[in-house]
Amino acid sequence: MPTNFLLRLTAIFVLSIASATAQQSGSSPASSTETQPPAPGAQTPSAPQEPEKETKKESKTTSDSAGPGTSNDRLFFTLPNFLTLENAGHVPPLTSHQKFAVALRGSFDYVQYPWHAFLAGISQAQDSEPGYGQGWEGYGKRFAASFADGTIENFMTGAVLPSLLRQDPRYFQLGHGSFAHRTLYAVSRNLVTRGDSGKNQFNFSEVVGGAMAAAISTYSYHPKGKLVTTTTPGVLRYIPSDRTLDNTAKVWASQYAYDMMTIVLKEFWPGIRRKLHKTTSEPGITIENIKR
User: Fold this and answer.
1) CA proximity to 85, closest of 4, 194, 203
2) How far apart are CA 160 and CA 153, in angstroms?
């Protein structure tokens, strides 16, 4: 379980490459049609305003279908990014119902199933938490544990604690300044958050909520210590319990590090997204274009 941070880093890297490749391949037909030479004598059309409309559509990540004050955006067009707002300014706080609704929406999003299946596969290959065993039974336990871990953390840090403490679980992108300034701002949001009153507060929801989620998952359904048979007849091997305070601290630390890395991605993702859209929408270089 402490290896989840590295597993998630690997998964994000794979998903980012896959999504970028899909974006480029999906836009290639459109690029080929845009480079068709005009008929002889035909007037060259004036510059259309469609790219401006597309830019407006791309920059608009919030909508009524996402719920008031939330987003439809996805990191690398894949991972749910529903609690990040761009250029939000002063917005009304979320109600408790809205906080639970967006946590539910993100936790059971269709991407979460292959995401946790991927994490469980790597965990099984590394024989992480050997108390789960191997085979399909061990894989099923790892998948269920990974899914439960993510869901519990999402609700504790995004709904339960924010509702009780009246804190805002959303990330408000800074969007300007130097790279270092924006990075420090993003990292600090794991310690400082906006309260429902609009004032900055210590982020108890992230720090305490993450610790509570790690303790709940570790001590409720992760493997206990047990004796297992070995290939040598009559010889048993003891597998230590994962339900320890030390393991809980490692789980919390890995989750916190993952959340910190993700929040930095959230800060710079809008710019990356615009560059990807711009790259995939540009027409290819052809002889006809050079002649013009």
Assistant:
1) 194
2) 10
pLDDT in tens, the chain (292 residues): 445 555 555 555 445 444 444 444 444 444 444 444 555 554 544 444 444 444 444 444 444 455 668 889 999 889 999 999 987 777 899 999 999 999 999 999 999 999 999 999 999 998 888 888 889 999 999 999 999 999 999 999 999 999 999 999 999 999 899 999 999 999 999 999 999 998 999 999 999 999 999 999 999 998 887 776 666 776 667 778 888 999 899 989 989 999 999 999 999 998 898 888 776 555 554 445 544 5
Q: Are 102 and 82 in contact (CB under 8 A)?
A: yes
- Comparing CA positions, the residue from 159, 195, 161 lying closest to residue 67 is 159
- The continuous run of DSSP H or E covering 101 comes out as helix 96-107
Q: Which two tokens stand for residue 170?
A: 């959303």
> How many CB atoms sit inside 10 A of residue 225's CB?
12
Cβ-in-10-Å burial (0-12, 13-18, 19+) of 4 comes to buried
Looking at residue 273, its amino acid is R
How many residues make up the chain in this entry?
292
**131 is written with which tokens?**
């108390």
Q: Could you give the 3-state DSSP secondary structure of residue 161?
A: helix
